[in-house]
Design goal:
The complex is a heterodimer of chains A (334) and B (375). By secondary structure, chain A is an alpha+beta fold. In chain A, 29% of the residues lie in helices and 24% in strands. The chains are: A alpha+beta (334), B alpha/beta (375).
Chain lengths: 334, 375
């Protein structure tokens, strides 16, 4: 890592964050359980059924169409457990509150968190509260740690990826990133777009019995492209994405065109990318499309031999590389 | 691919061209569409697409950025600027802040904004403090700035204007005798404001095919098809391939406001030099809001010189379409979006930045043909 100071780009999910984690955190904390490539880890107890994950939430604004920091704090951590093939069971909660924060807003956000936890059938079993002096926080930050039970059918690993495997996405990408950005009203833009923030558990559970299911990941920070790069790093294979097949809403495309963003790098908070053996891909797609919210699921790409790069086959038949995210023009979105 | 795009692409491939054709696009938005759609890869080999001078951040002269930095550092003002101006580097010793972003880290009160309305809002929120709006851009950006002034702004809002007109840069290339292109794709959004007629001189005076295009692949392909047909038939003329948005005469209200609030003056383009009639200045009626007149202490005549690029930086040649971004010796090493050396690697409108972000990262400076010398 050539940097001397932390910049926002060290938190965007892309190359700089990967380097930071590898060279600082993993370097000091390495142990047999820690796999910094994964969203959640299996602990060596209880017949390896115990899965654990943790996540922090700094989204601005705290409330946005389709969710708020409270619901996000449940979905974010539970989704990390879900894509690892687990059923979320317990959560812990840390709240970092800025001095002067409106108690009524806090109550509303924590009520939303509680409602989301009930919907997902998880209990918040421990917590901690800190108040920071005025000016030292964005009003409210949350952190949750989740514990889940591994579904015995789950056989997920980054190590089994093979040439010819297919990539699926469970719905349109980029809604969350753009919805949060519009909610900031920073660019004089507004719109009716809602965040996709939701539980992905129905989508992950329904694929677990397929023998060809290799790996799942929710494309949060850094979006779809970042997940694809993780697949490249792990497999040494190339990812070929078909632009015409990737679902992106019209409104997301328009905002991206206006502000110069690429929708494939935008965060989602309720989507899953799954990698499956070709023989199970169509079956998986059918199952996802039958689920509420899965109508726009699509087969979007293939793992192929070649240099570990992400290729986008464009609508007009051209091709370009989607490089690892470097810059971070976007506001904090999770 | 849409049916229309497919038809246009087939039609382009079917055109029997007498020789290799170089098409220049004026706008960063065009270049973005071309690079992100991978258009170069699907065109017949005899058609070359060259990015042109359409990046306002890239051509904003160093002295203007320097002045903005100095104002923010040494005057009790809040400086607001469009976000992509914050990282534009100026070529000063490393001991000094080299960009507005670094000046902010050094304590300057500098805030990124996205619209002129935000500048007005910030000025209203702090009536006892001067707010300097560093407004750099082409016609499309400057028209809203003019409208802001015409509507009336708080007394404490000053404008440090660095506005430019696009067509004079193309005229400069054409009049140089070695324009380096055979056909032109003119900027759709500028034509929306100023009217497509501004570009008639390209065909009428210089005999170069020209078409106005928007930023969708289909509009770009339609414009390419138009200029290639014109080229083959030897019938150069202006065609509007963005008729849904671009109307004859442009936007009369916006043009009227521009005329009332601003004067057209000679202006310096970074790395290129002074181009006659290519800049905007506040008209006398608005001199009370002209930062250069109200805060004149940081206009340094010594900085107003041609060729103010950092050593080795070929941004000026990239802007003029003389070389491709990856033919610059610094492209990718050490010049990258995180640590830009030249302005073309900063903005989303800059050709270097667009190529880098669309995955074109291999440096080809070694293979650069002799034509690469800047004009």
């Amino acid at each position: 890592m050539e940097d001397r100071y932390i910049s926002l780009a060290h938190g965007n999910g892309g190359r700089f964050m990967r380097e930071l984690i590898k060279e600082v955190f993993a370097a000091h904390l390495a142990n047999p359980c820690l796999d910094t490539r994964l969203d959640a880890v299996t602990l060596p107890w209880d017949n390896r059924q115990l899965v654990m994950s943790t996540d922090g939430f700094t989204v601005q604004p705290l409330e946005f169409p389709g969710g708020d920091i409270g619901s996000l704090a449940v979905h974010g951590t539970c989704n990390d457990l879900a894509v690892a093939g687990a059923i979320p069971v317990f959560l812990t909660l840390n709240a970092f509150i800025e001095e002067g924060f409106d108690l009524e807003v806090l109550d509303r956000l924590i009520a939303s968190l509680a409602r989301t936890a009930r919907e997902m059938e998880v209990d918040v079993v421990a917590g901690d509260t800190k108040v920071l002096p005025r000016g030292q926080g964005g009003g409210l930050y949350l952190a949750t740690t989740g514990v889940g039970r591994l579904d015995p059918r789950a056989r997920l690993s980054l190590d089994g990826l093979q040439e010819g495997d297919r990539l699926l996405v469970s719905g349109p990408v980029g809604d969350h990133g753009i919805a949060v950005m519009l909610a900031r009203e920073q660019f004089g833009l507004s719109g009716s777009l809602r965040s996709d923030a939701a539980s992905v558990l129905p989508f992950t559970r329904i694929l677990l019995d397929l023998p060809g299911l290799r790996f799942m990941r929710d494309p949060t920070r850094g979006g779809l492209v970042t997940v694809c790069h993780e697949l490249c790093h792990a497999s040494g294979l190339a990812v070929h994405l078909n632009e015409a097949a990737i679902p992106v809403r019209e409104q997301v495309i328009s905002v991206c065109q206006m502000l110069g963003y690429d929708p494939y790098y935008l965060a989602c908070e309720g989507r899953v990318v799954a990698v499956l053996d070709e023989s199970d891909a169509d079956q998986a797609l059918e199952r996802w499309r039958d689920l509420p919210g899965g109508e726009e699921a699509a087969l979007i790409g293939t793992l192929k031999s070649g240099k570990p790069r992400v290729h986008l086959e464009t609508r007009i038949g051209g091709s370009r590389l989607l490089e690892e995210l470097e810059d971070d023009p976007l506001p904090r979105i999770c | 691919m849409s049916e229309r795009a497919r038809r246009l692409l087939d039609a382009i491939r079917a055109i029997d061209l007498p020789r290799k054709v170089k098409i220049m696009n004026v706008c960063g938005g065009h270049e973005r569409t071309i690079s992100h759609a991978g258009l170069r890869g699907v065109l017949p080999p005899g058609i070359e697409m060259i990015p042109g001078p359409g990046c306002p951040v890239c051509i904003c002269p160093e002295e203007d950025v320097y002045e903005a930095i100095q104002l923010a550092l040494h005057e009790p003002v809040t400086l607001v600027a469009f976000g992509d101006m914050l990282r534009v580097p100026v070529n000063v010793p490393r001991s000094q802040p080299r960009s507005l972003e670094q000046a902010r880290a050094a304590g300057g009160d500098i805030r990124p904004i996205a619209t002129p309305m935000e500048a007005v809002r910030i000025a209203r929120e702090q009536p006892d403090r001067q707010v300097v709006f560093f407004a750099a851009g082409f016609e499309t950006t400057i028209a809203p700035v003019a409208a802001m002034l015409a509507e009336g702004v708080p007394d404490n809002l000053l404008v440090l204007l660095s506005g430019r007109l696009t067509w004079p840069a193309v005229a400069l290339l054409l009049e140089s005798g070695t324009p380096g292109f055979d056909a032109l794709i003119a900027p759709g959004h500028v034509a929306t404001v100023m009217g497509p007629e501004e570009w008639e001189f390209v065909a009428d005076k210089h005999g170069i095919p020209v078409a106005v295009a928007g930023f969708e692949s289909e509009s770009m392909l339609a414009a390419m098809h138009s200029v290639l047909r014109q080229f083959r038939d030897g019938t150069p003329k202006l065609e509007n391939c963005y008729p849904s948005v671009v109307r004859p005469g442009g936007n009369p209200i916006a043009r009227d406001i521009l005329k009332r609030v601003l004067n057209v003056v000679d202006a310096n383009w970074r790395g290129i030099g002074t181009i006659t009639g290519s800049g905007f200045a506040l008209s006398p009626e608005y001199h009370a809001h002209d930062a250069r007149l109200q805060l004149p202490s940081y206009q340094d005549a010594a900085r107003k010189r041609v060729g103010q690029m950092p050593p080795g930086c070929d941004c000026a040649s990239v802007v003029l379409g003389k070389i491709y971004p990856n033919e610059c010796r610094l492209f990718g090493n050490p010049c990258v979006p995180r640590r830009p050396i030249g302005p073309c690697m900063v903005s989303d409108e800059g050709a270097c930045r667009i190529w880098w972000s669309s995955g074109l990262r291999e440096n080809k400076a070694e293979d650069r043909p002799p034509r690469a010398e800047a004009g």
